[in-house]
Amino acid sequence: MLHDLVIVGAGPVGTTLALALSDSDLDVVTLDARPAGSISRSDRSLALSHGARLVFERLGVWSEVAATPGAVTPITDIDISQRGGFGRARLHARDQGVDALGYVVSYRALQHALDSALGRASMSVEHGVGVTRVSATGGSAHVVGERDGAAVEWSARLAAVADGGGDVVDYIARRKYDYRQVALVAKVWSSEPHGGLAFERFTDEGPMALLPEEDHYGLVWTTSPESASALVALPDQTFLAALTQRFGPCAGPWIRVADRRTFPLTLEFARRVVGERTVLLGNAAQALHPVAGQGFNLGVRDAYELAQELLAASMAADRDHFGAHSFLAAYSRRRAADRWAGIAFTHGVLGIFGADVSLLRWPRGLALTLLDALPPVKRMFTRAMLYGVH
Ligand SMILES: Cc1cc2nc3c(=O)[nH]c(=O)nc-3n(C[C@H](O)[C@H](O)[C@H](O)COP(=O)(O)OP(=O)(O)OC[C@H]3O[C@@H](n4cnc5c(N)ncnc54)[C@H](O)[C@@H]3O)c2cc1C
């Protein structure tokens, strides 16, 4: 049987795509390795932009996420500064006429709301299917996997791969850049309420971020693997003293820390997001350094914009067009500016702001001062953060 679309991976990006197509008469199948009712990566929080919230509102899932106790923390202001140098910028939601610049959202709560909405829309989701390969021949995509040890297979006009890694597609080349640094993440509690204020601080070891989350902050501390191992092993109070020393007095005072973990920092992206009858979305297309909190939002926009292209083609009663070269080229062009801006911005921020070069302190300070002092520049920068680049 030839489906219109097979989505590989029912994570937040794959389910966003499926849900955005739920009002159409397209024949869509979504596959995921996780068993029904379970959620992978459930310890994670996601940094959601205002634009991503609007997408989830349109899909009818935002109210459920927002009603889940502790699942959504608004970021109303962002303080950007550098350690050991001048320059500071503050971004405010009120300057943009929005309630929040972004949100820290529980992955578990968002995935739960998306799964429930797919169930209500009677969209076909097959759980417990580990896809091993996606290929394309004879004008259709072929998806091969395993369920309960048995081989299973699907054919479709188009395969959308949103498995978080893109490894099942071997005909689209990927680039990996290893920053040779790790992110130490932890929950830290201050004796002062966070009031929705997030911090980005550039230090000579790399960028640090504090994101307000429920009654605490989510800390991201970029450092060398050796230093991260030492920091993880410190007693709690010694760790908090090290945090105060490194971050400075602009945040805190710190009273508690929990859940210290580390993961390696890389930038990984597909050289092109489309191949024959195949498209890569979300982290399968680009997995960015978390410094700017933009990775997930790019994935949501990938899914939403692909859905718009598919809906337009289905309204033109042109299903054979799905996955055709001209369809994929149009989608790829439509996503190019936003995608490359996200990749280049994140990588560039690390080059200029993350480098251990004291000569860069002055241009860094100047950039921050200009960002803060020039309202049009600040507005443009904040808008790109909220809605992406179009
Ligand atoms: C260690 C780490 C920490 C992160 N921390 C943050 C953070 O603090 N804030 C933030 O905003 N972002 C964070 N991110 C990024 C964020 O997790 C991603 O942007 C987001 O999860 C992308 O969603 P996705 O749907 O593309 O992929 P995923 O969330 O990875 O979902 C992929 C889905 O595909 C399924 N799948 C995978 N392989 C297969 C297969 N072979 N067959 C079938 N199904 C499959 C999985 O079960 C899963 O449901 C982090 C990423 C990593 C790696």
What's a concise summary of this model?
With 390 residues, this protein is α+β, with helices and mostly antiparallel strands.
Which key features would you list for this structure?
single chain; eight-stranded mixed sheet; binds flavin-adenine dinucleotide
Query: What gyration radius follows from the Cα positions, in whole Å?
Result: 21 Å
Helix content: 25-40%
SS element count, helices: 10
* Beta strands, count: 19
Strand-residue fraction? 25-35%
Low-confidence stretches: none
Question: Could you explain how this protein is built, in words?
Answer:
The chain has ten helices and 19 strands. Helix content is 35%, strand content 34%. The two termini are 37 Å apart. It is α+β, with helices and mostly antiparallel strands. The strands form three sheets. Strands 1, 2, 8, 9, 10, 11, 17 and 18 form an eight-stranded mixed β-sheet that branches. Strands 6-5-13-14-15-12-16-19 form an eight-stranded mixed β-sheet, sandwiched between helices. It is globular, with a radius of gyration of 21 Å. The structure holds flavin-adenine dinucleotide. Flavin-adenine dinucleotide (FAD) is lined by residues 8-14, 31-34, 40-41, 44-47, 129-131, 162-164, 168, 263, 282-283, 290, 293, 295-296, 299.
How is the topology of this model organized?
Layout lengths: L1 E7 L3 H9 L7 E5 L12 E5 H9 L3 H6 L4 E4 L1 E6 L5 E5 L9 E5 H14 L3 E4 L2 E8 L2 E8 L2 E12 L12 E17 L6 E7 L2 E8 L2 E8 L1 H9 L2 H12 L6 E17 L3 E2 L2 E3 L5 E2 L7 H21 L9 H29 L7 H13 L1 H13 L3
Parallel strand pairs: 1-2, 1-11, 2-8, 5-13, 11-18
Antiparallel strand pairs: 3-7, 4-7, 5-6, 9-10, 10-11, 12-15, 12-16, 13-14, 14-15, 16-19, 17-18
The site of flavin-adenine dinucleotide has 32 residues, from helix 1, strand 2, strand 3, strand 9 and helix 7.
